[in-house]
Amino acid sequence: MKPDQIYHELKNLADKLSITVIEKNFRNTGIKVKSGLCKVKDKDFFYMDKHISVYKKNQILAECLAKMPLEDIYIVPFIREFLEKHSD
């Protein structure tokens, strides 16, 4: 599966988990900011630096999603394996 397809599938999985993935330009913040999960008013958001490579985006998002309860959600087998490789 191509990296862009993986990223698309990971974002779909995040959506199934009620996590909104938002890509932002972190270069103009003036402070050091990293991509990651946050909760705002009981809603989950994953802020992603839009300037990093799709490979890094896949890695960061997979590490986050691998920690979520995924047992009852259908996940494409390739993506499930990808998540297992990126779990702690």
Protein described:
The protein is an alpha+beta fold and 88 residues long. It has one domain (3-85): Zincin-like, CATH 3.30.2010. Helices cover 40% and strands 20% of the residues. Strands 1-3-2 form a 3-stranded mixed β-sheet. Helix 1 runs parallel beside helix 2 (54-65).
Draw up the topology in text.
Layout: H1 3-16, E1 19-24, E2 36-40, E3 43-49, H2 54-65, H3 77-85
Parallel strand pairs: 1-3
Antiparallel strand pairs: 2-3
Helix pairs in contact: 1-2
**Fraction of residues in helix:** 25-40%
Overall mean pLDDT: 90
* CATH topology name: Zincin-like
**How big is the Rg?**
13 Å
Give the strand line-up of the largest sheet. 1-3-2
Would you tell me the structural class of the helices and strands?
A: alpha+beta
Overall 3D shape: globular
Query: What is the CATH-assigned architecture?
Result: 2-Layer Sandwich
**What is the makeup of the main sheet?**
3 strands, mixed
What is the C-level CATH assignment? Alpha Beta
Structurally, the number of domains stands at 1
Q: Which runs of at least 5 residues are low in confidence (pLDDT < 50)? A: none
Care to give the gist of this entry?
This protein is α+β, with helices and mostly antiparallel strands and 88 residues long. The chain has three helices and three strands; from the N terminus they run αβββαα.
Defining traits:
88 residues, alpha+beta, Zincin-like, three-stranded mixed sheet, 3 helices
